[in-house]
Amino acid sequence: MNVARDIITVAGVSAGVFFFFAGTVGLLRFPDTLTRLHALSKADNLGLGFVVLGLLPQTGGLRDGLKLISIWMFVLLAGATVSQLIARTARQSGSGK
Amino acid sequence: MTEFLTAAVGLILAMLGLGLVSILRGPTDADRMMAAQLIGTAGIAVLLLLGTVTGVPAAVDVALILALLATFASIAFVKKGLSRLETDGADPGEDR
Amino acid sequence: MTGSSGDRYGRAVVAVGGSWRTATLRAAFFLCLWLVLAGANPADIPAAAAAIAAATWTSLHLLEPSRSRRSIPAIVRLALLFLYQSVVAGVDVARRALDPRLPLRPGFVFYPTGLSRGVRRNVFTTLTSLLPGTVPTGEENGQLVYHCLDVEQPVVAELAAEEAALVRALYND
Q1: Chain C environment of B91 (Cβ under 8 Å)
Q2: A32 touches B: beta carbon within 8 Å
Q3: For every one of its 97 residues, what pLDDT tens digit does chain A have, with 9 covering 90 and above?
Q4: What ipTM did this prediction achieve?
Q5: φ, ψ for residue C170 (rounded to 5)?
Q6: How far apart are CA C137 and CA C125, in angstroms?
Q7: Cis ω on the peptide bond leading into residue C46 (within 30° of 0)?
Q8: pTM for the whole thing?
Q9: Where are the transmembrane segments (chain B) (predicted)?
């Protein structure tokens, strides 16, 4: 049982780290503000999602697990909202070209 | 498991640092504001991992607060940016 | 933010209901959220009551009870589609970022939406901001402007499919 839980954790957290890596590579390589925003909002959200998924088997109980999931859903919704607001500002200030 | 999670914390922190350097170089304010987004995701991942590694459940609460603050910081930035555009006479893009 | 998530989970079962029913369901949702985030501690009851009252009032103030029909299977499908799309979007960005040739053809795509201005359109842009390769960047002449990583993707068709799923789930009137 413990081994199965640890395997899920290793897989989830590794996938999370990979997407954070990809997001940062995108930040460094993509050419302008709006494309960098794509890299940040999408890859990093997924990275956090996988880290949360990986940590779920290590939590003490149901409440801790639900708490992790609520934090992740909050970050997902907040990220989806904020990224379009930043994109709007970037386009209107003419830097998105 | 502890060693693995600690290594993951180190890697994500390195990604966070690199990302911050690239974002804070600019060139526009919108680029710099994405730092709040980056800290709002990578920083939270680090805190959640640390909470599990060290067995300090309060780290999860800190992560929640960080998520809230990062969101409010971004919204404050967008508000400020839009009001500046309005005074320039450009389309403020209302409806939110 | 709390308002919209309250809308999604607390009110999904309301087809046509009075505002009291909506208020009760939203308060129940916020109570569950409090229990998950802060735990059940008798000393917390005053703080919890104040927080739930404030959250319910704010959500009713910001997001009025809607009269349109909601379908729970369609909402579940929309949520699954959203999760699936956000995974595809992350993989897509990762693939482009790590590809040595950096395959990007960024540009703007205009999408004429059938959704009315205000809450519905905002829900739609929030959902679509996690679609693969697109970020909404506001609107122009009544059309939504999307920034795309690759303008050769079938962006408009994907957006139309997403809009249809959203209408089936929440705005079927």
Answers
A1: 140
A2: no
A3: 688 888 888 889 899 999 988 888 888 888 888 888 888 888 888 889 999 998 888 887 888 888 888 888 888 888 888 888 888 787 777 644 4
A4: 0.83
A5: -120, -30
A6: 9
A7: no
A8: 0.80
A9: 6-24, 36-56, 62-78
